[in-house]
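Note to self: the last two entries modelled the partners one at a time, which told us nothing about the interface. This time every component goes in together.
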Amino acid sequence: MKPGVHSELRLSLVIQRASILSISLGLSLGLGQVEAAESLPGCSFGIQAGVAIPAGRDLGVTVGSRLNGAVGVHATWSIGDHHGIRPRLDLWDFSQGHQEVLTPFAQQIETKVQGIALGGEYLYRPGGLRGRLAAGGGLYLIRWSVDSTNRLDGSTGGTAQASGTSHWTRDGVGLVVSFRLTPRLDGEARWIFSSYGYEDLPANLCTAGLLWRF
Amino acid sequence: MQQQHSGHRYLQALQLTGQSVALTSLGTILALHLLACGGGRASSGDHAGQINGFFRITPDSATVLVDQTVSFSASSSRGGDATWSVLPATGGSIDAHGRFTASSSPGLYQIVAMWSSDVRYTATALVTVLPAPPPTPVSLGMVQAFGNHQGSGTVRNTPIAGEPVQSQVSTDSTEVFQLRHGFYLPPPN
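The predicted structure of the combined assembly is written out below.
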């Protein structure tokens, strides 16, 4: 498959996923008017799991098109009726990416990206402690790791290959929408903006998942 | 009662101000980040097919005789070492510092460097390995020409009167040229 066609397919896949996410968000906002049966505790701890989807070209090229897992732990503190702080630790494990070109040289690059994000989110609950919907923003410190194998076929014959792992720690900001499904279970969607690599390339992603409180 | 009511209003106003400050700060940070992130670059050096961009080899081409050496260096604005290769491997060998030693096979070869800090970054250079020059007979006239004139023909890469000289062809219609050289001490045996 030509590299251009491959990129277009990947882009359309990302757009498709973003559309699904938008519809989910819309439904969540609509249902947000309904009040939950039980109000939130002052402080709680929990775990979360979901999917992470690259939302930019650079990260999109480097990670694979398959589903990427996201897991983590969090705590939630309610400050008054309408405000909350959520410190959290997330691990994003992206599927293996494959790039292949024929010009100027035949080259193949295999990559496996991981991100560990430590940060905190501010949540505003329009409906107070008994409301289902919360929205806000977050600040994160993200440790990106990329395992790479680069293979190049020379124009004069022969093959060169090298493998290695690179790490960068970058800041990130995010938008969060959270919806209480049950007293112990929240659904959430996030849009996170960060950068990675030695050229500080955009590394934006969407995450969607479930948060379970102990 | 009135005092209690005004106190409540004051607390409400304070709460609203706090919310506004928090939301404005978050919005500003987000906007700045969005501006900084941009929409992605068309050609990042860590993508396949992006050769000699952020990371490159100096010089990008070189010519050596068989069994001779030439040094390459690979660099980026962030420094770092490289993994070197000669393609095909029959062209010679290259060490961790980019010092290439040509084999005894003349030809065109490719030098490839992959950045150790991030192996996705690739740079290439070309090296031409020339065959060993045929031995040039040193004529009596050539020896006598030391410091003066040598008439006729072509001088190849070869020692003349003990001094290595570069290839030179006479452009004169009479095939006479002057070869300038300096004082040269031959290496000890």
